[in-house]
Amino acid sequence: MKGTLYIISSPSGAGKSSLLKALFEKFNQNDSMYLSVSHTTRNPRPGEVNHVHYHFVTVDEFKALIERNAFYEWANVFDKYYGTSRELVQQALNNGKDVFLDIDWQGARQLRDMEPDTQSIFILPPSLEELRKRLINRGQDSEETINKRMSKAQREISHYDEYDYCLINDDFDTTLNSLWSIISANRCKVNVVKENFSQCLNNLLENYQKE
Ligand code: 5GP
User: Fold this and answer.
1) Which run of H or of E encompasses 124?
2) Ligand 1 centroid to 102 CA: how many Å?
3) Number of Cβ atoms within 10 Å of the Cβ of 140
4) What is the mean predicted confidence (pLDDT) over 191-207?
5) Which residue lies with its CA nearest to atom 16 of ligand 1?
6) For ligand 1, mutation pick of 9, 43, 88, 102 (most atoms within 8 Å of CB)
7) Is residue 45's pLDDT more than 90?
8) Dihedrals φ, ψ of 85, to 5°?
9) Which residue's C-alpha comes closest to atom 24 of ligand 1?
10) Share above pLDDT 90 across residues of the chain, in percent, rounded to a whole number
């Protein structure tokens, strides 16, 4: 069994975290999906829990992990380090789970080069006005931080066309269903079925010589 690696990227405030949360609540009853928890050197925001939302580490700790080749990918985003643990992701994939990485376009590029079967999905807000409104309503950031996030959003958005799929998150439930459709369709791809259901296929084609 081998799971698929999914990359989900978006500018902050487009709804990526809420979508992933709902995806896991609604569609992960059989524990077939794994959400990777990244390491970061940024400070926790109010309500964020160490080892749940991120593994919060110091810059020295992060650099030591780079030295040990512990990251599948890592990047510097908004002057802070972020990285994905290689071991945990590979373990989950080898256990047949679909693994979800909430990472930026720089990490997405690194992984696409390393793992050609990676499926990457970009979540867009319906407009810049709506993005600002959502950041304000989230109530997590100061006005100054919101302005900074808005100015960085377009840089992130400009990379949308490097991805396999692009979802415009206008209506939450529609976007969630589209996200689940991508995952469901991928599970039916011939190469995925061939890899994960070899016993079943062997049985179906037992003693048969293909023409
Ligand atoms: P935030 O600080 O708002 O949680 O995340 C800022 C950005 O860093 C987001 O675009 C998020 O997807 C990205 N990010 C989070 N974890 C990782 C990671 O492990 N690797 C990379 N490359 N980006 C990450």
Assistant:
1) strand 119-124
2) 6
3) 15
4) 94
5) 103
6) 102
7) no
8) -65, 125
9) 103
10) 86
Closest-lying ligand 1 atom to the alpha carbon of residue 54: 16
- For residue 78, pLDDT beyond 90: no
The C-alpha atoms of residue 77 and residue 112 are separated, in whole angstroms, by 18
Least-confidence region, from 2-11, 100-109, 130-139? 130-139
What spacing in Å lies between the alpha carbon of 9 and ligand 1's midpoint? 8
Q: What pLDDT is recorded for position 148?
A: 87
pLDDT at position 69 over 90: yes
The pLDDT value given to residue 160: 97
CA 74 – ligand 1 centroid, Å: 9
Across 12-21, 30-39, 136-145, 188-197, least confident range: 136-145
- Alpha carbons 131 and 149: distance in angstroms, whole number: 10
Query: Counting beta carbons within 10 angstroms of the beta carbon of residue 31, is it exposed (0 to 12), middle (13 to 18) or buried (19 or more)?
Result: exposed
Query: Would you state the pLDDT for residue 46?
Result: 84
Q: Look up residue 164 and give its two tokens.
A: 């396999």
Nearest CA to ligand 1 atom 12: 103
CA of 90 to the centre of ligand 1 (A): 19
